[in-house]
Structures are given as C-alpha cells and as structure tokens.
Amino acid sequence: MLGSLRVRLPLIFLAGIVLAGVITTAISIRLFSQFTENQTLTKLNREANGIAALYSRAVNQGYGNKKDRAAPQFAAANLERATGDRIYYLGGNLFPGQKSGLTPLPPGTIDWHVGKSLSFTFTPPGQTRPYLAVANPIALGGQVVGALIVATKKTNVRQQVVSLVERLALAGMLGVVIAAFLAWYLSRRIVRPVLQLSDAVDDVAAGNYDVKVPPNAPGELGHLSTRVAEMANRLGEVEQMERNFLMSVSHELRTPLTAIRGHVAALLEGVIEDPELRHTSLETVEAETQRLERLVGDILDLAKLDTNRFTVTTEEVDMAALIEQAFDRYRDEAQRRSIDYRHEVAARPVITSDGDRVLQVVGNLLSNAFQATPNGGRISLALAQQNGTVHVAVEDNGPGISADDRDRLFRPFVSNKSGGTGLGLAIAKELSIALGGRIDLDSEVGKGSRFELVLPA
Questions:
Q1: Per-residue model confidence as pLDDT tens digits over 214-255
Q2: Residues 146, 15: one domain?
Q3: 334: domain range?
Q4: CA pair distance 146, 52, nearest whole angstrom
C-alpha cells in the first residue's frame, strides 16, 4: 500500500508541510520569546525609572537634614498592585528611623554602586522561580546610595509564549487538515492520468496499440500523454509496415523462386530439348537469380544503415559519366513502355565520394520513378552544379504524392506501388545522409514528383 504513488505523494506532501510548520513554529516561538522579553524589559525599565525618580525626589527633599527626610506618602504595596510587579531595594538606609516600605535584597544580588540601569535575572529570597528585573539607581546629592528594582516573574513571559504555541498548534492542525485534503485532491489529479498512462503502456507492451491516453492532462503529463499516443501509433504503423514488408518480400522471393524452380525442373527432366529454348530458360533463371540478389542486398544494406555498420569509401567520381551509366540502365525499359525518357547534363563536376553508392541512390530514384510512371509517361534525369553542391534531379509525371504521405514515403517497408518492397527510397535517403548529402522532394498530386539528390561538391 505504501509503495503506491497515490499514497506516497500525499504522505510526502504532508510530511513537507508538517516539517515546514515545525520549523516555522520554532522560529516564531524564538522570535516571540525575544520580543516578549524585550517588551517586558521595556515596561520594567519604564516603571523602574518612574518609581526611582519618586523615591529620589523624596530622599533629596531633606538633603543634609536626616531628621526632616520623610518617606513618601504612598506605600510600595500600592505601587505593586498598580503595576502588577514586585518592587525591591538594594543599598543604604534612605530614611533613618523610618520604614521605606521597600523589600530589601541581599547585598550581593547586583553591584548597585555602578549607578547605571541594569537588567538581570534573579531569584528573590523565599521564592523558587526566577524573576526578570530592572534596577535603577537612587542618588543623594549626586552620589548613588542605592538601587530600586522592579521585577516580574519569568513565568508571566512564558505564559504568553505558551498561549502563542497553543494558537499555533490549533492553526497548524487546521492547516494539516486542509493540506491533507489538498494533497488527496492533487494526488488524484496527478496519479489518475499516471495510472491511465501505465495501463496504456501495458497495453502497448501486450501488442495492443489502439490505446486511450488521459485527455486534457495538465502540464508535463499532457505532453507525456501526447508522446505515448504518438509512440503507440508509430509502433502500430511499424508493425503494419513489417507485416506489409513480410508479405511483399515473401511475394518477391516466391515469384523468382517459383520461376527458377520451374525452369530448373524442366531442364532436369529433359522437357526442353530445343537448344534455343534451353538457353532462354537459363537466361530466365539468371535474371530471376539477379532479382533475388538485389532484394537480399537491399535488405542487408538497410540493416547495416540502421545499425551504423555501413562504411563509405572515397574516390574521385565523374558525375557526368555516372549519370550516363544510370540513364543507360533504364533505356530499354523506357523504350518498351513508350516512356519519354531523357537526360540533361548542365555541368560535369568531379567529386570525392563513393561512386557505387551514389550510383545506387540515383538508380533507386530512377527505379521509383519508373514504378510510379504509367506507360507513355515522361521521366527526366538532370545533373547540375550550383553554390558548391551537385544536384541530381529525377522528375516524372506520375500520380504525385500527397502531403500526408511525404513523411512516410522514406520509411522502410512503405510502398504505394503493387509489388514494391518499400526499401528503395528508404535506402536512398540513408545513403544520401551517409554521403554527406540529402534528398529533397517536390510533388503535386496529379502532376508528378521531383526527387533531387544534393551532394557536396
């Protein structure tokens, strides 16, 4: 259960909130404690200043005459009730023969002779809890004769902190409840599409590519959903292409093999006795064998290109001679099908490349053009050079290629012609890239296509 994402996400979310709350509470308590203590000291200092000033005035009224020096009419108890704090005295006798009403402290409590206002913590006699206190000096004739001390229990400061902690705890509990609800809600929003994507991936792994991905998923999940759907569609296309390829290849292999087997059987059984017919039969066997060799060679070339095990040799290539050679290969087929077949050589560049592979690419483009062009159609082969590149264009007036099919056309196993394996253009594209060039396509449905091989000069 704890291993589930829908449980772990809320727990992690809540743990982060609780940790942040604990840290925030600790910092708040620390700051509030300091603030409360400072406020308390400010209050005590203000009271100590006022009360010390009263007693200093009473002491100095009879300065020089101890008998006329009378204690203030107000009592210390009344001041303590009014302020809520305790008042102590430390020092010499202020009013000889009279009671000042102030509670004395042991002489060693603080050094009152410094004559400065002091803040300190002490435990009064008979008490068990510490007090926070401020001492202000009392002067007689310019000399410090004692110190008046105003003090309050530190527990009063702690009570304010405890009150703050209680309120923070209540707010924290409310915040955790709200955070838990939000965590549960966000977890559902996040985990639900993740689970749907997981189910979709499981379906893809099982071979079912018609999957449903979560619609309108937020942010990165939406991007991931789109990519999973594209992946499933692409895998479905690849599987379909592989089926088509196997069907095409099996047909392509079976047709020449059937012809070879029939002619060889006839020769072995002596059915064909005429020397000319025997020679024709052997020529058919040779042609079908070459056809098989080309098919197997295409498959091997594509496998090498896909696994990056393909090597390209470098040599000086006379492109004009290469174009003549490629053109001559299809001259007989053009005459047989009454195709207007022509070529144009506008430049005679010599490049450094792999001549056999360049010839293979041009041959594949011509083969594709002859497959697409009906009898009586038109095919042209042109060679040109411009801006440091060599251009070999193959143009036909076949049915053309739609915009939707252009991206798929150079994929392996894709063919719009009956009997085609879909390897020619795929191999041509990969070879052009291996040679440092590219193949450009310009086509219009109903008017034909133009394939252009561009190589560095």
A1: 776 667 777 777 787 788 888 877 777 677 767 766 766 777
A2: yes
A3: 315-456
A4: 10
